[in-house]
């Protein structure tokens, strides 16, 4: 995938780092020289430009990438203007970060593909961990259903996946199990990694570092966590 990231604050810089690590072609832009300098070795190309200026923005290969991500957060005016200019320049796939719900509501008027609120997601994740006592990652499918990834609670260690009866008792379907293993890189250094095992054939006891990936209603997942 080819993408352009506009705005290289903390959020934009992490996007550059993660997307590049996964092998995507990343082009980054910011008007701050120090921010540009920090990511130049991670990107395929980097531009120091004022994205609020239409002529400067048009220097970017906007029509040759799969998505343009506006990672500007705190400066609402700059964020909205850049999105407006991208729409004017005919960019079809735009993701934009919103700082709060007012920002989100303004961006919705542009009918862009995705609005991102990273602070909200981080806050929800923290609350889930505090409330449920389980560190879980959630991918929402809709308002009710999601995919949950969580490390095995100590109460389940030693139980085989087939004996959990999660679907029969809690309407949660196990779709993957990740097991930690020691691997060695090409220079001989060992480190911890994980691999997905075949759920249908997996009947060995769950271990402390195993991770379950389940699908179902968030309300059912909450009930399970409270039972644990």
Order of helices and strands: EHEHEHEHEHEHEEHEEEH
Largest sheet: 6 strands, parallel
- What is the distance, rounded to the nearest whole angstrom, between the alpha carbons of the first and last residues? 41 Å
Shape assignment: elongated
Helix content: 25-40%
Rg from alpha-carbon coordinates:
21 Å
Strand content: 25-35%
Q: Given the helix and strand composition, which structural class is it?
A: alpha/beta
What multimeric state do the chains show?
single chain
- Summed over residues and divided by their number, the pLDDT gives a mean of 84
Count of β-strands: 11
The tally of helices reads: 8
Strand order of the largest sheet: 3-2-1-4-5-6
Query: Spans with pLDDT under 50 lasting ≥5 residues?
Result: none
Write the layout of secondary structure elements.
Elements: E1 2-6, H1 10-21, E2 25-30, H2 33-39, E3 45-48, H3 54-57, E4 67-70, H4 76-88, E5 94-97, H5 101-108, E6 114-116, H6 118-132, E7 136-140, E8 145-151, H7 166-170, E9 173-184, E10 190-197, E11 211-217, H8 218-227
Parallel strand pairs: 1-2, 1-4, 2-3, 4-5, 5-6
Antiparallel strand pairs: 7-8, 8-11, 9-10, 9-11
């Amino acid at each position: 995938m080819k993408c352009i990231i506009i705005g290289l604050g903390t959020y934009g810089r992490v996007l550059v780092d993660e997307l590049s690590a996964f092998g995507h072609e990343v082009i980054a832009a910011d008007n701050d020289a120090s921010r540009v300098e920090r990511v130049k070795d991670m990107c395929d190309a980097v531009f120091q430009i004022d994205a609020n200026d239409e002529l400067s923005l048009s220097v970017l290969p906007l029509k040759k990438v799969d998505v343009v991500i506006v990672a500007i957060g705190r400066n609402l005016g700059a964020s909205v203007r850049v999105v407006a200019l991208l729409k004017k320049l005919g960019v079809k796939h735009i993701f934009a970060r919103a700082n709060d719900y007012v920002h989100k509501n303004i961006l919705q008027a542009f009918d862009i593909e995705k609005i991102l609120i990273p602070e909200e997601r981080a806050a929800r994740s923290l609350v889930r961990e505090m409330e449920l006592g389980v560190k879980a990652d959630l991918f929402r499918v809709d308002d009710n259903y999601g995919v949950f990834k969580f490390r095995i609670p100590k109460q389940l260690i030693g139980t085989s996946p087939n004996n959990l009866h999660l679907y029969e008792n809690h309407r949660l379907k196990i779709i993957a199990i990740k097991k930690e293993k020691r691997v060695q890189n090409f220079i001989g250094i060992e480190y911890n990694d994980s691999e997905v095992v075949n759920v249908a054939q997996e009947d060995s006891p769950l271990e402390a570092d195993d991770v379950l990936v389940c699908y179902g209603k968030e309300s059912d997942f909450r009930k399970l966590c409270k039972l644990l």
